[in-house]
Amino acid sequence: MHQSQILHFDKGVQYAANSYKTLLASHHVAISIAEVGTAWQNGYAERAIRTIKEEETEPTEFRACLDSLRQTESLLDEAHMNRRIPSSLSFSTPVEYEEQWAEGQAHLISQGCWV
Description:
Layout: E1 5-8, H1 13-16, H2 18-26, E2 29-32, H3 43-57, H4 65-82, H5 94-110
Parallel strand pairs: 1-2
């Protein structure tokens, strides 16, 4: 079944409770959790969460939870996808990187290469 969302968390016992995991599964939410002693497995998720906390949630006072959600969606849609230029993507934004990849795939197909 297609998972519509992924929830990343640490090893807290409250997150590992069967009732909580069942609730997440009933809402088609996948679980992301690193193995014990392998902190590098969750680096990308931790970095994304830190950015959201530092740039959006901590300096802002929200009137309602929905306001926080909208602001976080805006950060991910605008700032992350269109302005951030991570070195892991050859200093391109994620949108630019995906466009370059798609162009490369189209070129390969036009040359008779299957990808």
